[in-house]
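TASK: fixed-backbone design
INPUT:
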């Protein structure tokens, strides 16, 4: 099947991914736009894994101040090079994540930041909630409850407030694919009057 430049342009406009990657995805999906988007999404995580161990030496600070002046957030979005960190789309991503942090108030960037002590305390509370359940089901129920509890507190797992179909983590892996280098949220901070 012949892939047209208008199909490539449409997929590129929709995803922001490079022309060559869009063309390859459309070829793999035999011209089906929805399948091509899924192919690109699948390849995002592969690209992120390949670049995860690269050193981050640059970045941009995203800032958001709510119009009420009662809540603000900052995000340090790290990249490998100044070339990427000064890119307009990269800076916009940092600002969007800062707005999300202001709205959702995450406690952790990723699961790796949750200490054993905090995890143990959560398990103790959840143990009380599952003690009356059948013994063979308690562990599964506990795992789901713990997962649900921390999902709301971990930035990378939260659905993005502007597009709940995408998580912050997926946005970061998409940025790795789009910019062609390692991208990571290095720091977050939030201030609130209330």
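OUTPUT:
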């Amino acid at each position: 099947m012949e892939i047209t430049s208008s199909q490539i342009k449409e997929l590129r406009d929709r995803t922001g991914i490079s022309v060559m990657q869009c063309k390859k995805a459309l070829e793999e999906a035999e011209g089906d736009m929805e399948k091509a988007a899924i192919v690109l999404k699948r390849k995002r995580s592969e690209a992120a894994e390949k670049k995860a161990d690269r050193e981050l030496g640059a970045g941009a600070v995203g800032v958001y101040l709510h119009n009420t002046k009662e809540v603000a957030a900052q995000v340090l979005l790290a990249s490998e090079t100044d070339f990427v960190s000064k890119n307009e789309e990269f800076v916009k991503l940092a600002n969007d994540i800062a707005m999300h942090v202001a709205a959702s108030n995450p406690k952790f960037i990723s699961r790796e930041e949750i200490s054993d002590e905090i995890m143990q305390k959560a398990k103790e509370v959840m143990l009380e909630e599952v003690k009356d359940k059948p013994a063979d089901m308690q562990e599964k129920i506990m795992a789901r409850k713990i997962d649900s509890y921390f999902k709301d507190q971990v930035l990378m797992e939260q659905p993005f407030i502007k597009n709940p179909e995408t998580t912050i983590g997926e946005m970061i892996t998409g940025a790795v694919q789009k910019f062609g280098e390692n991208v990571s949220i290095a720091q977050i901070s939030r201030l609130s009057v209330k």
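COMMENT: The first helix runs from residue 5 to 15.
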